[in-house]
């Protein structure tokens, strides 16, 4: 951590130039005697990324940013706030503290938060930034989170972990046993120190595999931001032996979509099927990740187009956690019929279809965008079809 980056003239430069061309700065003459241009560029890149992702940090003076990679692995404020709303009590240990966004939001709901980070520089950065933001109930500790638990005799109200999903070669990993720390190795220790364990995993982890490795799961939360799954949260409670509850949430441009159920509901749900009717429904990414496809049909009174086609249809317009379209026309998939549509520009989605979006665009010389939506999929007879649609007005819940 180069504290010279906090000098007023450097901070003023960062505040006014974070949108500048970083290559010009990187290759230009040295800007400041005690700071390398690459260090300035690192701050500029991270500050620009923070504008949308971390507005509290962006708007606070004298923030010291971690590098772009570290910041990309950091929770957004929206996701951190969601996690904080799950916890309460006197004490919480964030065993993988990182840049400190989650710890900061936990500190709004917990009396005392321990931020433990084994990267010394990142630990120092978090401590500095907490002081700038004005939070005083976070104790920043440099060291290994698991070691902290082993040495600490205190029983905590909550333990939180966000295991690193990169190996020693900086390549992405997806399985729990490949992450650092490997939570599957330390479950007994975690359960001996708290009745509430919250583990964040990446969106690529298979839910059935997570349930198998993380037994005593009380709740699973799938958190999506603008229809992209950002994190999966596993709330473990020792001695909990019932079916877990699953909650999905999609924060989407001022509109929050939720869908929740007990796991046994998903397993017992039965879907009805139909040809495309007047309206078409596409679940948001969080629901798609949950795999509750038959339950969506049952819960909303919608009919599926085909067993493996996770699109739904109805005659009447209904409120729905996802995208809703009004069907203009449905045709069999062949060149002659498609050309009769006369569409040259469209947004394309494929579901349970043998060709990719790229192949379809090339085949029919289709430009991207516009008001037309084309769904390439299969119907109840397993035939390939194309659904031409336009966005339907949203019904407020």
UniProtKB/TrEMBL annotation:
It comes from the Bacteria. GO terms for biological process: methylation. InterPro entries: PG_1098_Fer (IPR054168), SAM-dependent_MTases_sf (IPR029063), Thump-like (IPR041497). Keywords: Methyltransferase, Transferase. The keyword Methyltransferase applies. GO terms for molecular function: methyltransferase activity. Residues 279-321 form the PG-1098 ferredoxin-like domain. The keyword Methyltransferase applies. SUPFAM superfamilies: S-adenosyl-L-methionine-dependent methyltransferases. It holds the Pfam family PG_1098_Fer. It comes from Maribacter flavus. This is Class I SAM-dependent methyltransferase. Residues 322-386 form the THUMP-like domain.
């Amino acid at each position: 951590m180069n504290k010279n980056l906090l000098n007023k003239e450097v901070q003023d430069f960062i505040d006014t130039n974070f949108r500048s061309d970083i290559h010009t700065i990187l290759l230009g003459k040295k800007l400041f005697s005690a700071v390398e241009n690459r260090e300035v560029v690192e701050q500029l890149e991270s500050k620009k990324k923070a504008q949308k992702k971390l507005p509290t940090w962006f708007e606070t003076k004298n923030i010291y940013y971690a590098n772009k990679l570290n910041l990309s692995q950091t929770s957004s404020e929206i996701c951190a706030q969601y996690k904080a709303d799950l916890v309460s009590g006197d004490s919480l240990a964030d065993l993988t503290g990182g840049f400190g966004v989650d710890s900061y939001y936990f500190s709004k709901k917990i009396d005392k938060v321990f931020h433990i980070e084994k990267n010394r520089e990142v630990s120092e950065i978090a401590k500095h930034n907490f002081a700038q933001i004005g939070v005083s109930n976070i104790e920043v500790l440099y060291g290994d989170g698991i070691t902290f638990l082993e040495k600490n005799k205190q029983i905590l109200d909550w333990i939180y972990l966000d295991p690193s999903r990169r190996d020693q070669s900086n390549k992405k990993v997806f399985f729990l046993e490949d992450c650092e720390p490997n939570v599957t190795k330390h479950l007994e220790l975690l359960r001996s120190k708290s009745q509430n364990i919250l583990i964040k995993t990446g969106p690529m982890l298979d839910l059935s595999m997570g349930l198998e490795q993380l037994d005593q799961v009380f709740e699973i939360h799938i958190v999506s931001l603008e229809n992209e799954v950002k994190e999966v949260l596993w709330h473990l409670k020792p001695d909990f032996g019932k079916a877990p509850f699953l909650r999905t949430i999609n924060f989407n441009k001022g509109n929050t979509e939720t869908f929740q159920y007990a796991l046994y509901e998903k397993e017992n749900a039965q879907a009805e099927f139909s040809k495309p009717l007047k309206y078409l429904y596409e679940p948001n990414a969080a629901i798609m990740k949950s795999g509750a496809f038959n339950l969506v049909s049952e819960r909303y009174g919608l009919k599926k187009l085909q067993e493996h086609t996770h699109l739904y249809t109805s005659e009447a317009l209904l409120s729905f956690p996802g995208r809703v379209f009004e069907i203009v026309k449905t045709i069999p998939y062949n060149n002659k019929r498609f050309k009769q549509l006369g569409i040259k520009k469209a947004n394309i989605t494929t579901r349970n279809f043998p060709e990719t979006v790229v192949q379809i665009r090339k085949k029919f010389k289709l430009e991207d965008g516009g008001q037309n939506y084309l769904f390439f999929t299969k119907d109840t007879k397993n035939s390939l079809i194309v659904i031409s649609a336009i966005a339907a007005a949203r019904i407020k819940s």
